[in-house]
Amino acid sequence: MLHDADYEAYPEKHPQIIVDHLNGQGEEKIAHAISAHYTKWNVPYNTLLDKALLACDELTGFIVACAQVRPEGIATLETKSVIKKLKDKGFAAKVERDEVYKGAELLGVELPDHITFLMMC
Predict the structure, then answer these.
(1) At what angle do helices 16-24 and 28-37 cross, to 10 degrees?
(2) Which residues, including other chains, have CB under 8 Å from residue 52's CB and lie 6 or more apart?
(3) How far is it, in rounded angstroms, from Cα 17 to Cα 49?
(4) Count of C-beta atoms within a 10 Å radius of residue 23
(5) Which distant-in-sequence residues (6+ apart) come within 8 Å of 6 by Cβ?
(6) CA 37 – CA 21 distance, rounded (Å)
(7) What element of type H or E holds 25?
(8) Is residue 54 within 8 Å of residue 99, measured between CB atoms?
(9) Is the pTM of this model over 0.90?
(10) How many CA atoms, within 13 angstroms, populate the side-chain half-sphere of residue 87?
(11) Could you tell me the sign of the dihedral formed by the alpha carbons of 76, 80, 63, 33, in that order?
C-alpha cells in the first residue's frame, strides 16, 4: 500500500510525492522499488523488492476485480479464470497487462503459479 500512498491526494503526481518523501526519510531502497514499479520512468529492476512490487501490484488488483464479479468472491476463484480474464482486454481495462506478464518474468515464476500464490495470501 505504501507505493500508492500519494495516489488519492495527488493522482497526477503519483508516485513522485511518495518517492520524494521516502528518499527524504532515508528509505532509498523502497523509493527505488516504487520508482521502478512506475514503468513509465524506465527505472531498472535491481533488487527482488523492485521485481516483486511490479509482479504483485497490477496482478493483485486484477485478482480483486475478478473476485468481485463472482457471487462467492475469491472463495471459488480459480487461476484459470484469472488467466482467461487477463485475455479479455475489456475486463478491468485499466490494468496494465504488460506489467503483469513482465512482473512474473522478472521474478522467474510461471504466471499461473504466481496467480495461485497471490490468491492464497
Answers:
(1) 170
(2) 107
(3) 20
(4) 15
(5) 13, 14, 15, 16, 17, 18, 21
(6) 16
(7) none
(8) yes
(9) no
(10) 5
(11) positive
Express each pLDDT in 38-81 by its tens digit.
788 899 999 999 999 999 999 999 999 999 999 999 999 999 99
Q: Cell match 492464497: residue?
A: 120
pLDDT digits (tens, 9 = 90+) for 84-94: 999 999 999 99
CA distance 44 to 36: 6
Which runs of consecutive H residues, i.e. helices, occur in the chain?
A: 16-24, 28-37, 48-68, 79-87, 97-107, 111-120
> 3-state DSSP call for residue 69?
coil
Residue type for position 79:
T
Please report where in the chains the cell 528509505 appears, as a residue: 27
| Count of all residues that appear for the chain in the document | 121
The DSSP symbol for 10 reads -
28, 40 in Cβ contact below 8 A? no
Residue with cell 521502478: 36
Sign of the torsion angle spanned by Cα atoms 52, 54, 59, 60: positive
